[in-house]
Amino acid sequence: MSNNTGSHTPTVIGSDCAFKGELTFQGEMKFEGRLEGKITSKGNISIGAAAEINGDLSVGKATIDGTLQGNILATDRVELTSTSQVTADLRAPKLVVEEGATFIGNLHVSPDALKKPEKGAKKAEFVSEESATPVPNKK
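RESULT FIELD:
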């Protein structure tokens, strides 16, 4: 007899697991291991603090506590927690960044983030550290 309570137990990939290749899933996943490759899903993924991903992430929602190097595409949102270390090109309609998170890369965050850029559209240029104006802390 099946227990159909409407709740779904997420798939868990433990810290003792390492993958090379493409990982796909449905629903929700808690990823604690290491991956070199790609993760694809319309579902939600939570990447644990000890997790290391070197590759692309294409999901509905991503919560990142660990290390990711690659590209991130989320159809809903990306959340970078205070322990996250991300080097990526990120595209998502919504982005939440906790104080302490590390992000190096390109961002495209808007309701139109998943649309292809128009031909001839100018690419954004980064401001160098030397020319950036510090924002004072508000107390």
